[in-house]
Automatic annotation (TrEMBL):
PANTHER family: ATP-DEPENDENT (S)-NAD(P)H-HYDRATE DEHYDRATASE, ATP-DEPENDENT (S)-NAD(P)H-HYDRATE DEHYDRATASE FAMILY MEMBER
Family affiliation: In the N-terminal section; belongs to the NnrE/AIBP family. Belongs to the NnrD/CARKD family.
GO molecular function: ADP-dependent NAD(P)H-hydrate dehydratase activity; ATP binding; metal ion binding; NAD(P)HX epimerase activity
The protein, known as: Bifunctional NAD(P)H-hydrate repair enzyme
Keywords linked to the UniProt accession: ATP-binding, Isomerase, Lyase, Metal-binding, Multifunctional enzyme, NAD, NADP, Nucleotide-binding, Potassium
Known partners and oligomeric status: Homotetramer.
Cofactor detail note: Binds 1 potassium ion per subunit.
Gene encoding the protein: nnrE
Residue numbers binding AMP: G400
Organism of provenance: Sulfurimonas crateris
Binding site for (6S)-NADPHX: 56-60, 117-123, 146, 234, 282, 328, 401
Length: 454
């Protein structure tokens, strides 16, 4: 797992105050990190255009021009004239060795975005916005210095300084970043970083259900009961996912006579030896209030998804101990309102996903929250984890039902709610990444099939 930070200015300050480094030294390493990438990937004399802003992000870019000048055909182009102390000093140094400043944005082999980094605020002016749009239209390899400017610049790779920032893992950032590498700033990353309660999940953090014990039977691996709702297909997809991910037994609990796959069981009530529940997928108005109360009349671990977030019953669910909630953005907005935490629109949530996850988990520290999205955020008490590995192939009906089934399966096999959420989410995204077909063609059945090959 890698650490994520709200801001890195305090980490820089510690470098100055405790490690006796300077802004100049950190900046030189920042620029050198980009120079090294370019030297390793582009032949000498390639044309490099570095678009700079007025602050220290721009200063990074100007320092980069000095490091590459003469070995590469380097030009500086100012989106905003250098203004910060470091930017002016870097400009003086660059001009002293003959770095060229161009009055227009020229075609090139490599384009570096050093307009703005962590100092971005508000909106771009029309002029800057059009420069960035012109940059995006250039046929060049695109490198973002520290952070793609305003996440409007669309990078092939983002070389970020010192540490990963949380803002890079908002959903709106995903299309701008390209690959991500961290550049060290004069000390190793482990020295530069401090503890963080927010971590980025790596695919190899996945801990699959184990079947190490030979002396076992189907009861050894849990029994999951899933509420079968009005849209019975949703419950069936969750149930098949859970069976595929190792639950020993899976029962659909409902009141309709429906056709179900022969591998699943059906009952009008929660079976005696049930070890976990799942509720909400395709639920609709299938369960009366009494039937819902009966389904929940236990202290079993529970995954709650989909329709439940629009029902008053969710407030009772929030009182349970072992609960995983798996809303998407719209369902989370509905939950925040119902729980009297915030009354916001989806686009406000999407801009501040970490903030609202933290607010929810502060009020309900015993609940594990998985907020779906391009970058999944999993919150529990004061901790949060990000799964960035999802792809747009998952944007299809039923993907969420599969995810709930995977998480519920691990719950039924004894995983803690947090571990079930993290590993269910990693398995979900890994199955999608392993899919060999075209991304538009991935179906929930392909996902379920992919689970057995993890
Ligand atoms: N540890 C590290 O991360 C290090 C980072 N470095 C680099 O420093 C920048 C942060 O530098 P800073 O000067 O704080 O801020 P920026 O350069 O990112 O941006 C500030 C300038 O950007 C202009 N700005 C801000 N918002 C807008 C906007 N909406 N439209 C246009 N321009 C904007 C602002 O201009 P003003 O005229 O408004 O003042 C600022 O001048 C970090 O990203 C790294 O690249 C260090 O080099 C090493 C350590
Ligand atoms: K930038």
């Amino acid at each position: 797992m890698q650490k994520l930070f709200d801001e890195v200015a305090s980490l820089d300050k510690r470098c100055y105050d405790e490690f006796f480094l300077s802004e100049d030294i950190l900046m030189e390493h920042a620029a050198n990190g980009i120079a090294a990438y370019i030297r390793n990937n582009f032949k000498k004399n390639s044309k490099i255009v570095i678009v700079c802003g007025s602050g220290n992000n721009g200063a990074d870019g100007i320092a980069l021009s000095r490091l590459l000048h003469a070995d590469y055909d380097v030009y500086l182009f100012y989106a905003k004239k250098p203004a910060s102390k470091m930017a002016l000093l870097q400009q003086k140094r660059a001009l002293a060795i003959g770095v060229r400043e161009s009055a227009e944005l020229e075609s090139c082999d490599v384009l570096v975005d050093a307009i703005v980094g962590t100092g971005f605020s508000g909106e771009f002016s029309k002029e800057i916005a059009s420069i960035i749009d012109e940059m995006n239209a250039l046929n060049a390899f695109k490198i973002a210095c520290d952070i793609p400017s305003g996440y409007r610049f669309l990078a092939d790779i983002t070389l970020t300084m010192g540490a990963l920032k949380k803002s890079m893992f908002l959903d709106g950032s995903k299309d701008a970043l390209g690959d991500i590498r961290v550049v060290d700033l004069g000390v190793s990353r482990d020295i530069y970083e401090r503890d963080s309660n927010c971590k980025l999940l790596d695919l190899d953090d996945l801990r699959l259900p184990s079947r190490a014990k030979k002396d076992s039977h189907k009861g050894s691996y849990g029994h999951l009961a899933i509420a079968s709702g009005q849209m019975s297909g949703a419950g069936i997809m969750s149930a098949l996912s859970a069976l595929r991910f190792g639950s020993g037994l899976v029962t659909l609990v409902g009141f309709e006579k429906i056709e179900i796959p022969h591998t699943l069981m059906y009952s009008h009530e929660v079976p005696q030896n049930t070890t976990a529940l799942a509720l909400g997928m395709g639920l609709g108005a299938e369960f009366s209030a009494q039937e819902l109360e009966k389904f929940l009349d236990n202290a079993l671990p529970l995954v709650a998804d989909a329709d439940i977030f629009h029902m008053q019953a969710v407030l009772d669910i929030l009182k349970r101990e072992d609960v995983v909630l798996t809303p998407h953005a719209k369902e989370f907005v509905s939950l925040l309102k119902r729980a009297n935490i915030a009354d916001i629109a989806v686009d406000e949530l999407q801009k501040e996903r970490f903030k609202y996850v933290e607010m929810f988990c502060k009020k309900y520290p015993h609940v594990t929250l998985l907020l779906k999205g391009a970058n999944v955020i999993i919150g529990k008490d004061s901790e949060c984890f990000v799964n960035p590995h999802g792809t747009q192939a998952l944007a299809k009906g039923g993907s969420g039902d599969v995810l709930s089934g995977l998480i519920a399966s691990l719950l039924s096999q004894g995983y803690s709610p947090l571990d079930a959420a993290m590993n269910g989410s990693l398995a979900h995204t890994k199955a999608a990444l392993h899919y060999s077909g075209a991304d538009y063609s991935l179906t929930p059945d392909d996902l379920i099939e992919g689970i057995c090959k993890l």
